Amino acid sequence: NRFYVRLTNMVRTMDPTSKIFLAHYAANYKPGGSTEELANLILNIVWMRNSMSKEIVKMCDQGKMPWLRVDKGKLAEESKKAADAVYLALGGKIFFGSVEPMKSRSKFPRRGYGEFASELVAFAKRAHDLAALWKGRADAVGALAKEIRRISGFGGKGFRMKEIILDLAEVTKAECPGVDHQLVDFGVVGPG
What is the sign, positive or negative, of the torsion defined by CA atoms of 33, 139, 143, 172? Predict the structure, then answer.
């Protein structure tokens, strides 16, 4: 009998997709800004990490990806139109085909986009609260993880929640001291 363990974690700054996403966030997020700026960052991380098709990554790398905004607890009207325009321009090919739930969404892109849009709306409703948790707590990582898992579609094994938190930590590490230390004890257990 053999027991195999496959470790899939990679330093984010070395992962090609993460490099592209982190550059996109850095080009649009203003560090040290308002809670609203942080809420917009969270929404955009959710958008990037929960689609991730090759086409999305390429658009992002070319600087053609719009920056979504939250307006009074809702996805701003121009952001709705921008997200729809990306979906239509790519012929529905916005989902990464190897990881669930994106894999099943890529097979049925119209239904998948409906689910995805619902998740964006749910995050937009909570974005300011999530931003306030991130900026204002000594246990920001754990508190944010708990709140994200309460959002419909994010209560499963925690992989998508982890991706959001790790990107957020990387982008905001200068303005959120102590987060690196909190990440030492943070992880999601599951198949890799």
Answer: positive
Q: What is the per-residue pLDDT for 51?
A: 80
The Cα 192–Cα 189 span in angstroms is: 9
Q: What is the pLDDT of residue 192?
A: 44
Contact 152, 118 (CB under 8 A): yes
Which residues of the chain, if any, have pLDDT below 50?
5-7, 191-192
Is 173 in contact with 179 (CB distance < 8 Å)?
Answer: yes
What's the chain's Rg over C-alpha atoms? Answer: 16
